[in-house]
Design goal:
2 copies of one chain form a homodimer. By secondary structure, chain A is of the alpha/beta class. Chain A has 3 domains: 62 residues, dopa decarboxylase, N-terminal domain; 243 residues, Aspartate Aminotransferase, domain 2 (3-Layer(aba) Sandwich); 117 residues, Aspartate Aminotransferase, domain 1 (Alpha-Beta Complex). Chain A contains 16 helices and 11 strands. In chain A, the strands form 2 sheets. The first copy, chain A, has a 7-stranded mixed sheet with strand order 1-7-6-5-4-2-3, with helices on both faces. In chain A, strand 10 and strand 11 form a beta hairpin. The first copy, chain A, is globular, with a radius of gyration of 24 Å. Chain A starts with 6 loop residues before the first helix and ends with a helix. Chains A and B meet through helix 1, helix 2, helix 3, helix 4 and helix 5 of A and helix 1, helix 2, helix 3, helix 4 and helix 5 of B.
Amino acid sequence: MSADLPPDEFRSAMHRVAEMVADYLEEVEEYPVFPAVAPGEVAASLPVSPPVEGEPIDRVLDDYKALIEPAMTHWNHPGFMAYIATTGSGPGILGESLAAALNANAMLWRTSPAATELEERVCDWLRQMLDLPAAFSGHINDTASMSTLLALAAARQRLYPETRRKGVAGGPVMTIYCSDQTHSSIEKSAIALGLGLDQVRKIESDGDLRLRPEKLAAAIEEDLAAGFHPMAVVACAGTTSTGSVDPIRAVVDICRRHCLWLHIDAAYAGGAAICAEYRALMEGLEEADSIVVNPHKWLFTPVDCSILFNRHPDLLREAFWVLPEYLKTDDGAVTNLMDLGVQLGKRFRSLKLWMVIRAFGVRGMQERIREHCRLAGWLAGEIESAPGFELAAPVPFAIVAFRARLDGASGEQEDEFNERLMARINAAGPVMLSHSKLHGRYVLRVVIGNLRTTEKHVRAVWRLIRQEAAALLAERKAV
Amino acid sequence: MSADLPPDEFRSAMHRVAEMVADYLEEVEEYPVFPAVAPGEVAASLPVSPPVEGEPIDRVLDDYKALIEPAMTHWNHPGFMAYIATTGSGPGILGESLAAALNANAMLWRTSPAATELEERVCDWLRQMLDLPAAFSGHINDTASMSTLLALAAARQRLYPETRRKGVAGGPVMTIYCSDQTHSSIEKSAIALGLGLDQVRKIESDGDLRLRPEKLAAAIEEDLAAGFHPMAVVACAGTTSTGSVDPIRAVVDICRRHCLWLHIDAAYAGGAAICAEYRALMEGLEEADSIVVNPHKWLFTPVDCSILFNRHPDLLREAFWVLPEYLKTDDGAVTNLMDLGVQLGKRFRSLKLWMVIRAFGVRGMQERIREHCRLAGWLAGEIESAPGFELAAPVPFAIVAFRARLDGASGEQEDEFNERLMARINAAGPVMLSHSKLHGRYVLRVVIGNLRTTEKHVRAVWRLIRQEAAALLAERKAV
């Protein structure tokens, strides 16, 4: 028995996969973005028990092509505009394939010198691209959820260093502040860290969906007076619903006044901040304690790859440093990436990002971001000037939130109309949108950010939106 | 400007990567396991700033081959016996390459029907392979650190449901029990969850490095009397240092008596438990509340892929369910994997595991595991009967912990000798070992578990060990 696939068989299967991947990217538009499958249909196509005997790898690949690929939601489809911009770009896919073969666990410098040092270097490249001071050091996590959890764990460690040994029970009740537009990962972090949802203060945002500094300051004062211990503020540089940017500079001042940790969620729009004009929308970013930017969002890197930039990596080490005997090494003053967080195992994620940055270059990445924003701006302009539609929020980056208007209808009726409109659009096949609620009202979202999305696709989605709205309107009038 | 790599260029680069990966796996033995690089050397070979202009993808791949690959610690090398068995097998590498191209985020059923349902199916396949009751449902996390953190979060939720809203401050002081051989992830979880290191009771293990049930029971009684709230026991089915298995049945009884959550760390040896004779060493496993098994350890799946089997997934949902408007769907009673943990983003990790199980078959996987254990058993036998060496612990699976003996030397001198012995062995190139401390004494570890490791390699490492020990002994006598 050959232990792994016989070398020749593997080599030819790898070439077949090369063809499958290249074909997929060229032909993905032939699929509907959302597959025509009902819940349970994929499961029903798979045997309930594992095969006793091994099967030829070509049969497995055939089944992938027949059963799995067509039942995917195609995030790499140019019509995928539902969720925050992601592209698994060519250079990124090449990087992931190589990383899988290396199969390294970069927990210690010793277990992966190149992965450790490339991660530090590539994070520093991105730091420079974001015009952040050298005081920030970056490391890669799987998701923004984990990057944010770690940032808040560092904040907890700073405020109450006894947490590490004693835990939170018996300690101060620590509070976190963010706007009502902030990502759900803040709440999940508060649960995980034992701080509790009740300690997350969701400050009402303003008309443009931005944190109101005066309300933030008031909430902190109120909590201080009530005996709480304010711990951190999470400000957004690009919210999930609309891309709105909180007034960072004003938030910085408040955080300084009260010694609060400032974590900035730039997971999405941090990508755009590699362009000076978008970085300018985030003035004060450089004053944060920590910032999360996800290259797997708008920097063309396959999922997962989230970078936490942190001014105080020693606080993470202080919180999480646990060194069992079998991981002790005598390599001297090296970075052991496992010391910076919860997970011991660590994939070689910097490889794909390195390949993306090198293949596209900083200028090339900027051009791609600008093109996405241009397309979003074009669509926003069309919506603004089209009768029967309105923008629901400003469009600082490439998320267009809008709604169809119904003359003389109640807000509720209008919401229902838009909900039905989205269902019709998504059922059509070539595009997938998502929704949100802003100021309590239902809105549709077009998120542009895939490298394969061109002006043609954005024009087509706008045609489809108008066409489906007109059809729905006609149905409504006919009733 | 083509937004992604031009299709033809990508296709040919993907074929080049296919060749590079196949070559790597065939030729990896030509590298030393640990590269001849000093800290900082890789970093020094990389430009301090990112390239402004994009570069040809072939140049990037050339640099990968010249700068990165040779500076890796080669986990896929047949002589990599340092850390817990991992192989990035051929089928797994093919799966990762396909997953990178799909680039799906399986947070919701809607965002990835096939990835959601394949994950459920493949976890259930493994459940059957492990002879666990259907009451366990599995889901995939990145690492055992996260699987364990989630298991302990569920335990926390069960003991103190107010945690979600109120947090731990003001709540009961909850305690966790494990042996002194348990993985560091328990401690990291206790820190992250706000429970605190002081609340982790490390129970002294017995001569064979297994949890002592009577000491566990006594510690719980003592804590109860002192007003603590015992929360969970983490038992090991295969410790990191030696693979020792705690007496699970006795631990189950204690947990039942006190209503404690029983989490079992089978991250490593859970792989072996697909063979009836190794599963038999874990009697009582089926009675746990949760179990972590890492296919990226001993089931030939590239890192990362850790499965948490859980009898109470609703407790995880209860703890972590947070649903922002933009993620609401009307798909009915579907599984949305994001509800089961902290992370929202979720790679399509089940694909590679599915491909491994199908390509090798259950029988094929069992044969591979048995061969690794046979090789470890052979080496253990050699060590046992060789003058000047001794086994430091029983060898239930494929971790061989041993030491060289020095007649008439102190424990300290012997420790130092073994430390130097390991450094010499690792410096030789074709093999990499690691160490641990057992009962306070330094031991070397040979971990067998790579598909490319054959009897030839194990014989070679045993030759090298004896040869280096003899050389060291001669030096010592010459002084």
